[in-house]
Amino acid sequence: MDEKMFNILKKNKFRNNIEIRPVKIYKEENLFYLKSSDKQNYVKHRLNQMKESFKEVLNITEFYSINHQSHVSFYTIGMVLIHTSTKLTNDSLYVVSNIDDSNDVLVKLNVKYLKKYSFFPGQIIVIFGKNPNGNEIIAEEIHCIPTISYSSAVEDEEHLYSKNYENGPISVCCFSGPFWNESTKFESLDLILEKIYDVLILFGPFVDSKMTAKYESSPQEIFTDEILVRIEKYVRKGMNLKVILIPHPEDVFTVGIFPHSFTFLNDKKLDDRILMFSNPSLFYINEFLFGLSTSDILLSLSSEELFCNQENEKADKCSDMLFCNDRISRICHHLIYQKSFVPVFPSKSPICYEKHNYLDMDVSPDFLIQCSKLITFEKQIGPTVVCNIGSQSTPDNKHYIEISLKSAKESNGKRYDISFLNLKNKS
Fold first, then answer.
1. At what angle are helices 297-304 and 327-337 packed, to 10 degrees?
2. Strand, coil or helix: what is 234?
3. Which architecture characterizes domain 7-34+150-295+362-425 according to CATH?
């Protein structure tokens, strides 16, 4: 991998056995006052977020406007959008920019000379090509892999982290809802709580519409009396145990607008070892950065993609990363290198675009855990391990992820192990 693709950020130093530090956790506020200008401002934010990273990897100093009229090839940056269609096609492929002199004008993207491409609505790309009339760019090259930033421990600092692992590797478990059905009640949650982990991450839905139909209590009461009471009992098993809860779009106690959070628990005093984070979230477990989301971003990318791959085309960074592997790897590359938890724009689900900083993935995590209807997988994408725990719509036949985080001294180069396990076969 070309080292130019990554900017290395030093990890903060800490020495507690297990320390969880929130980086980006959202709390809902004023979501019913969505302004018409939010989407336009979000496009501007995304372009400004990405432009310097593209300049760095392409070794250029400026971009021309999208509608710059020229018979000479030039570089420009824009966001891919659909026009007059509900599905991205070669005929409905347009780009827009509102950070230059383009004035939000849609410009058609002509890709007839390209042999390889992978587009989706909302994608930030750099185009090298000509625009003879000002309203259509004839693309010669498409660049969609900018530099990204990620966290990394410097070798001479590794001894500082070793104190975090005096009792061996740190065990992390990821388990997703729903946790209830009418016949077995909370059996799946009870089974996972039988085993002890240093950090247990529970993804919603915790209380969905099927569950509320069978209870007379409010969703908040169901969560407190059935879910939270079990978790409080679990953390009493060990002084250093931590539990992280991530809400799901199907949780009935959320507002229903992404990003989601546990608003009804803001005034409740919780055990310090029980952490209510948002969807999405970025946080550290010791020196490892985790990114989590329960929204099906992977399926959205997969279903919206316009893809072409003709062989014998010259290799470049985009080709090496996007077209030499399987479809899942390609989708994951888009997710990491677009630096966003919601790269598809506009989304078919309600999103508060005003809170765009909570939608950014400005630092690539060590682990990105997703809950998608796509197949379960583990992929190394650049500096990030992307895992899909899957969408487990019923509590039957559930599986979960175990991650073992190792000290640098004991790792022999690989700092983690990952296993996908079936709950009913749990030892």
1. 110
2. helix
3. 4-Layer Sandwich (3.60)
